[in-house]
Design goal:
The protein is elongated, with a radius of gyration of 18 Å. A hairpin with a 2-residue loop joins strand 1 (2-6) and strand 2. The protein starts with a strand and ends with a strand. It has one helix at residues 39-47, and strands at residues 2-6, 9-20, 23-34, 51-53, 65-67. With 68 residues, the protein is mainly beta.
Length: 68
């Protein structure tokens, strides 16, 4: 995976290979733009639809929410 930043967005490229003992059987590359949102932005948007974050829900890297 390769990332490059440009004006608040990320250009992402994934290179995938299928291999066996003889070598590469198939390869595929895809690229696309991503517009990352902050955790606070996502929580605020979810709050507009009745969801609230669950404190200490386990993995701190995962935003866990519940319907209020």
């Amino acid at each position: 995976m390769v990332l490059s930043a440009d004006a608040g967005r990320l250009r992402t490229r994934f290179d995938n290979w299928v291999r066996d003992v003889t070598g590469v059987l198939r390869e595929h590359t895809e690229t696309f733009w991503m517009w990352p949102a902050s955790r606070d932005d996502i929580a605020a948007e979810l709050a507009q639809h009745g969801f609230t974050p669950v404190p200490d829900a386990g993995d701190p890297a995962v935003l866990t929410v519940r319907r209020a």
